[in-house]
Amino acid sequence: MATLKQPNNNPISKLNSNQALWAGILFSFLFTGFIWLVRPLLPQIDFLPDAGASWYYWQLPEPTFWTRASAWGGYLLHQFFIWGTIYYAQKNKLKYTGGLHKINVIALAGSAFFIVLHLLQTAVWYDGLAQDVSIFTSQGSVIILLVMVLIMENQRRGLFFGKGKRIGWLNESGRVLRKYHGYIFAWATIYTFWYHPMEA
Known about the structure:
It is a single chain. The protein is mostly helical. The chain has a domain at 64-195. It has helices at residues 17-38, 65-91, 102-124, 135-157, 168-195. α2 (65-91) packs antiparallel against α3. The longest helix has 28 residues, at 168-195. It is globular and about 55 Å long.
């Protein structure tokens, strides 16, 4: 009977967690600057007039099958990729470390790939998910993330100015959310990321 090789709990990267964080922040700033530089090469769209609070301005006036398929396809691939890395890390009970596990490096490299893919998707087809879903879903996903952070931090920091640590149901909810928050945080950020085209 074949046995699965146990994951290595030793970090593989020479970068520690803080260095990886700063490298990610630097990548974000540089890529944002790159988007600004290539803005003249991106499609110049004659947008429809603003129609109020529930209208998302940056979308094609006449979407096609391919504009929609490229946005939804990129989003779904990105979403399931990250959920897969979270599942792998939880299933294999990787221990916290000051460095990066192999799965961390895979998640970071994969995310960088999808960031570049989204820029290419914007350059060719432009539209994000906004064409098919309400603007309030993008805003709502971020609100859900923020409320989850409040609940998860209730026991440690309190809900209102250091108070509220004795709210029992929040403590139990916080325990459950701490276990599974990665899936919901990943959904909120990736959904919002693909909701918009990459505009500068």
